[in-house]
From TrEMBL:
<protein>
    <submittedName>
        <fullName>Uncharacterized protein</fullName>
    </submittedName>
</protein>
<dbReference type="InterPro" id="IPR055896">
    <property type="entry name" value="DUF7473"/>
</dbReference>
<keyword id="KW-0472">Membrane</keyword>
<keyword id="KW-1133">Transmembrane helix</keyword>
<feature type="transmembrane region" description="Helical">
    <location>
        <begin position="51"/>
        <end position="76"/>
    </location>
</feature>
<keyword id="KW-0812">Transmembrane</keyword>
<dbReference type="Pfam" id="PF24285">
    <property type="entry name" value="DUF7473"/>
</dbReference>
<feature type="transmembrane region" description="Helical">
    <location>
        <begin position="88"/>
        <end position="114"/>
    </location>
</feature>
Length: 119
């Protein structure tokens, strides 16, 4: 018995939620590097890496390829959205990765704790 059924709607919702999560962490990274920035600019950063991640996972593309392409697209979108020099874009991309991992681990830990609570 499969753990879950994959439907086009579930893939779409997963991609949209992941894109919003990446946009939120992109805004946190941009604020860390640039100071006060327009949060709407971060909405451009999240969707492409999210699509690459979901498609890469769905087609069993090796993680090294998926992560490399997602990082490259993340940097391209930071460059396009915030119009910064390459060195600043590189710093923003690294900080975005770190913030995304940290927030993801915290949210995953909370979900794990909530899933093991007594009923």
């Amino acid at each position: 018995m499969p753990a879950q059924t994959v439907t086009p709607l579930s893939v779409l919702v997963t991609t949209v939620l992941f894109a919003l999560f990446l946009s939120l962490t992109a805004h946190l990274a941009a604020r860390n590097v640039l100071g006060d920035v327009d949060p709407r600019r971060a909405l451009y950063v999240g969707p492409l890496p999210a699509v690459v991640s979901v498609v890469g996972g769905g087609f069993a593309v090796p993680a090294a390829v998926t992560v490399t392409v997602a990082f490259a697209l993340d940097a391209v979108m930071f460059r396009w959205s915030y119009d910064q020099p390459p060195r600043v874009v590189a710093v923003m991309t690294v900080i975005h990765a770190a913030v995304t991992i940290l927030v993801g681990v915290v949210l995953g830990g909370i979900a794990l704790l909530l899933s093991t609570r007594p009923t």
